[in-house]
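Notes from the 1:1 (GR / supervisor)

We went over the backlog. Supervisor wanted to see one worked example end to end before approving the batch request, so GR pasted a single chain during the call. The sequence is below; no edits were made to it. Supervisor asked that the structure be written out right there so they could see what the output format looks like.
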Amino acid sequence: MTTAPTPDRPARRAPSLDGKRIGAYLLIALGALLTIAPFYFMFVFATHTRSDIFQLPPPTWFGNNLDENYRNLVERVPFWRNLWNSLYLAVLTTGFTLFFCTLAGYAFAMFSFKGREVLFGLLLATMLIPGTLNIVPYALIMQALGWIDQPRALWVPGMASAFGIFLMRQYIGSSIPRELVEAARIDGATEFGIFRRVIVPLTGPAMATLGLVTFVQSWNGFLGPLIIFRTAETYTAPLALRSMQGIANTDWGALMCGVALTVVPLLILFALASRQLIEGLTAGATKG
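Structure output shown during the call:
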């Protein structure tokens, strides 16, 4: 469809798909298929037997063995108890991380105190330390506290993170005017009142991003639970699923069933929070 030409305005042609745009769409579609494929085959394999999974070519559609795979799963491990342990740890870790990281980010962004930049630099430096270097000290400290096989050994050390403080500090400093905080102080609001009534409502996208990242990281955590938990009833879901694997005797159908049930909450959470995640990653990226 074209616009009728006039002496002052030439005819405007309707936009058409050129070769570059078509190529870009095809590339995006290919990337989407490659991303979705592992999840699709995970759900497909959850409905097949071990022999079906390892046949060539592998099955590409759903089978009829889901009920048996589920029974084998709950017989091998207390799966729903393990899934509850993962949810318990993820919710506690996420809640405390959001509170303390937002509070610390507010302090670093809106307060001027001696040594602020040095302290913030030391905080960022901790992000450069590989996590594997902390395994032995972490295990010794938890052993000394008597927290082995206790969930608190995971969520107490995870109550704040350097990345979370950095994210909230950058977002608050670039997206919330300092004059707004000063006006609230002039009105007689306390510092915690300003944090609760001004800062928290305005940091929704950043908090959603940090909450989603923290929840997924805690939900998928493996090394920490492997060090702390010693009994099957205290295992998290990833650790319980790993315990089902053997050298020569692994029920891959039941294992895939457990993996699928473990991934479903994350897929639902990401579908609900994907918009906030994108806003939190892009908002505050530039100042001005």
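Supervisor's comment: Residues 109 and 196 are 16 Å apart (CA to CA).
Batch request approved.
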